[in-house]
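User: For a reading group we're discussing how well predicted structures match intuition. Take Regulator of ribonuclease activity B domain-containing protein. Before you show the prediction, I'll give you the sequence so everyone sees exactly what went in.
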Amino acid sequence: MITREQLVDLFDSIGENTDWDLAGPMRWGYYFTDPDRQRLERVAPLLEADGYRVVALFPAEPETPDGAESWWLHVERDERHSVDSLDARNRALHRFAETHGLEAYDGMDVGPVEPATHPD
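Assistant: Thanks. Here is the predicted 3D structure of Regulator of ribonuclease activity B domain-containing protein, as structure tokens, for the group to look at:
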């Protein structure tokens, strides 16, 4: 589980190394893993119903000598977070993974919200 102290370090690092405005909305990506692709496919609509966008469902690179298969589900949502709200979000997603029998909620990433582009 990601600790609050790790989140403090993350926010500090972003503040020191980027010009991102963490007080505004950011694009937060969240990751789940499981060896059963279908289990991840079943939870994707539940996350979508809660306002997440499914970005991808993809195979993980084998990390074990036996080449055991594992899958990643990447979802994202544009939202504002403080250290405390992100800590609460991580805890909720960890509980979600446990409730639905997933191998793990594996954490998050963040980036700026890209402006929408409109074709002419």
